[in-house]
Amino acid sequence: MATSEFVPQPARYAIFVDAGYLYAASGALLLGCGSRREYRVAAEKLIEALTDHADGRLVGELLRLYWFDAAPKRQPTVDQRVIANLPLVKLRLGNLNAQGQQKGVDAQLRADLEALARHRAITDAVLLAGDEDMLPAVEAAQRYGVRVHLWGVEPTHGSNQAEWLVWESDTVEVLPADFLRPYFTKTKALPVPAVPPVDAAPAAGKPAVPSPSQVFAGRVPSVRPAPGAPA
């Protein structure tokens, strides 16, 4: 009687990054900034650092890194297009509404993580996130036997990750400020243009010649009549 041979699943992992959490937490920690407009991120080098860090922590090969971000009407920015072209990186975009809130990111993350777990494509998942909305994705992957390793950003105070998300993950690691600092730079403020000085009043009896600033401002000074000229 033939028996089926058990083939062990090869060790393989994927990395899931919630860019909204990573950027916001890192910007606050490193630069005291609350908006992405206030700093620049060397995303390509940051992604390389994250994959190298995972390689030193986990057994097996990297399947790919999933980068979850948002953009108005899901139209990628220049930086997001660069990320999308990186090898072994999959860009997933949610919608960024007028209030600056991400919509649809957690649903996309859960769909990808659950699909990989269900098809036995991975044995481990690294999740860099902090929102409690990611909890269903963790639970879904674990039901298929995938170990979930939660990564977070060093908080400015207290914790910047949901308590239940921390509890449900198999392992938890906090990335320190020194790890993230090389990839975040504060944007320089643009200089404010100087206001040109107001020209002095012309001497009596001389026609006033408008200055360039007055011409472009649409203000042409009146011309005084010369002495003895008819009114």
Description:
It is a single chain. The chain is an alpha/beta fold. It has eight helices and nine strands. The strands form two sheets. Strands 5-4-3-1-6-7-8 form a seven-stranded mixed β-sheet, sandwiched between helices. Strands 2-9 form a two-stranded antiparallel sheet. α4 (105-118) runs parallel beside α5. The radius of gyration is 29 Å and the shape is elongated. It starts with 11 loop residues before the first strand and ends in a 15-residue tail after the last helix. The model has no long low-confidence stretch (mean pLDDT 86).
Observed structural traits:
231 residues; alpha/beta; Rossmann fold; seven-stranded mixed β-sheet; two-stranded antiparallel ribbon; NYN
User: Main beta sheet, described?
Assistant: 7 strands, mixed
CATH architectural category: 3-Layer(aba) Sandwich
Spell the H/E element sequence.
EHEHEHEEHEHEHEHEH
**Which class best fits the helix and strand makeup?**
alpha/beta
Number of domains: 1
> In total, how many beta strands?
9
Unreliable sequence segments: none
Bin the strand percentage. 15-25%
Briefly, what is this?
The chain has 231 residues and is an alpha/beta fold. It has helices at residues 19-31, 43-57, 78-84, 105-118, 135-143, 163-168, 177-180, 212-216; strands at residues 12-18, 39-41, 61-71, 89-96, 102-103, 124-128, 147-153, 171-175, 184-186.
